Amino acid sequence: MTRFTIASFNVKNLIGPDQEYYEFQSYTPEEYAWKQDWLADQLLTMDADIVGFQEIFDEAPLRDLIEETDKRGAEANAATVPGPSKRYHKRAIFRKLAFGGYGEAALAFAPNASDSGEPGRRRPGLAILSRNGFEGTPEIIQTLPEPLTIPMSALGGGSDAGHYTIRRTSRPILKARIPVGDTVITVFNCHLKSKLGEYITPEGADFAPEADLTNYDPLGRAMGSLRAALRRMAEAWLLRREIVAELERGHPVMVLGDFNDGEHAVSSEIISGEVPFKNYSWMLRHDASHANDRYTREENRQITEDVDRLRLRSAEKMFVRKSLRDMVYTSAFGGIYESIDQIYMSRHFDGTHGGAIGEMDYYSVFNDHLTDGSHPEAPYNKLASDHGQIMAHIRLGED
């Protein structure tokens, strides 16, 4: 039996001091020290075997964070974990208290292809940290070899209603194959387009008209939200395509990151795949020629399997169902508490599925720092993460 933990950690704009990442936004050396201190404590507390990080502008500050976490972990182990000279040193509690360390871990960083390095106009990337290393070289998916063109059909038929084309995702998707015990798991780390409106700046202008709130344009801003949603869902489909390819190869899959949408949003459902209908034998056939032309029982079994084998499970939903807890959140803003950070996994890790190779034992949520912006100038709001961290505890094999 093998146990491991996998976590998602949006660190909120990790970059060195005195560097303007967005317009007029940077950290003083003191603010950067505060942020690194908080992040190191959080990473130490999580002590996850695999961590997917989002909002990483440069690799060096992340490596500094990991090094500081290791330093604190070594100090904690020296103070709390007894050596072999103590007769009680093998007690299980000390195994749980010990910090695993990242001294031998592998780190894969995916810079943003849209990041020019220009101060005030930086674009964040993401990373995966793995105590188990990687099998092969992790793959960065962002600039598409061939643009994705989405044709739109006209209501009532026809395919002449225009199209939407995407050539590059807003942030990279990082794909890594990670060995765990006798299994190799394909892990995707993503950060989909946010709900912030996407506005177009006219040629020669300093800003988009919709950005001028003194001349509020409700329809223009609504169009910006529409553009953002289209981009987010297109990115979700691109990720789904990669997921299906891995599942078709028989590889166990885990997807984690900042989805910028709740579990029941269309973009999240695109990533996870459809939930099988309860009984397709009740459903009118696609080629029905009369009112009672339904799918057969054998076709029902086939369709259900075809849908389910490519469907991902939400770690949060499995945890809520198992623990009787009715609320988990990773984001708090404007009085709305929701989960926009997710860990999804293929049915290889669903204990209710007969062919499962493992099961999630527990799901941790680290969200005590979220303040809903009640104190705008508080260090937690500016310097700590504005996301809760999530971690799935997985057991492979049988006890």
Account of the 3D structure:
The chain has 2 domains: 2-141 and 169-273 and 314-396, Endonuclease/exonuclease/phosphatase (Deoxyribonuclease I, Chain A); 278-309, no CATH class. It has a 6-stranded mixed β-sheet with strand order 3-4-2-1-14-13, sandwiched between helices. It is globular, with a radius of gyration of 23 Å. It has helices at residues 29-46, 59-80, 92-97, 218-248, 266-272, 297-308, 315-323, 379-382; strands at residues 2-14, 50-56, 106-110, 125-130, 139-151, 163-180, 183-191, 253-258, 313-314, 331-333, 336-338, 341-345, 358-366, 389-396. With 399 residues, it is an alpha+beta fold. The N and C termini lie close together (6 Å).
Quick take:
The chain is of the alpha+beta class and 399 residues long. The chain has helices at 29-46, 59-80, 92-97, 218-248, 266-272, 297-308, 315-323, 379-382; strands at residues 2-14, 50-56, 106-110, 125-130, 139-151, 163-180, 183-191, 253-258, 313-314, 331-333, 336-338, 341-345, 358-366, 389-396.
